[in-house]
């Protein structure tokens, strides 16, 4: 039996555009099994809470033509996201945050911001320190992926991007002091910019140094933050440490103590950066570019149920 919404008698609405969440999904995304897309019903419900549609019962909502246009845009973007991103690292809290962001930007008429943080390309091998003056293969791959994502997103809702190049929080900082690392980083950044320019035919992605965010320069600097007890849940720190252990020992020949110290620096620094990005890019989504997806949750610090919204691309090889 359909339960009648308490406000139904006073609404006196036409039944012409009245749908359940499944019906509106099928209207906007026909000829596909769209109702099975993860958390798509939640998106409809959150949009309804934001006045996209008027509830007339607990199952049915009345939509104006403009409501339907907005909702179809949101649903198409959510389908696109699910086709292009990994579900393994996107928990239910992150899904909800992403949905809230896209609803906010569509209702406000502002473009969606997709931003990312790229690590510089450094020399690899036991005993090697410093950076190379050109962009590495992984970074080139991720430049291509985020560019493709932003341009495709822009076809559904207006989208622009910021690609931050990290000239802070440097690896092996204590050993860099007597090297030409700043010159190498400058060359690396210049090459990074040129690669983005070649991908960015519509001019909707800008590149910036991470040090252009004054809070990061003041608080993190080139060395990074360190805390004996970083503001990150212990299980996340442990997972990142184990992932780092494999990477740093194999690629740089580090000891376990060096890896533990670096993990603490990353944990404290990422937590601070996450808090800053929440303020700086309130209506933005981070696009993950590092190979270690385990690190993403560090950006949310201790607030894992209210995470920084991050899109994790599907790994290809």
Describe this structure in words.
The chain is an alpha/beta fold and 317 residues long. Helix content is 47%, strand content 10%. It has two domains: 84 residues, no CATH class; 221 residues, Rossmann fold (3-Layer(aba) Sandwich), CATH 3.40.50. α2 packs across α4 and α3 packs antiparallel against α4. It starts with 7 loop residues before the first helix and ends in a 6-residue tail after the last strand. About 3% of the residues have low confidence.
SS strand fraction: 5-15%
> What value does the average pLDDT take?
92
Given helix and strand content, the structural type is alpha/beta
Reported CATH architecture of the largest domain:
3-Layer(aba) Sandwich
Q: What gyration radius follows from the Cα positions, in whole Å?
A: 22 Å
Shape by Cα distribution: elongated
Query: How many strand elements?
Result: 8
Main sheet specs: 5 strands, parallel
User: Helix and strand string, N-terminal first?
Assistant: HEHHEEHHEHEHHEHHHEE
Q: Do you know the CATH topology of the largest domain?
A: Rossmann fold
Number of separate structural domains? 2
The helicity comes to 40-55%
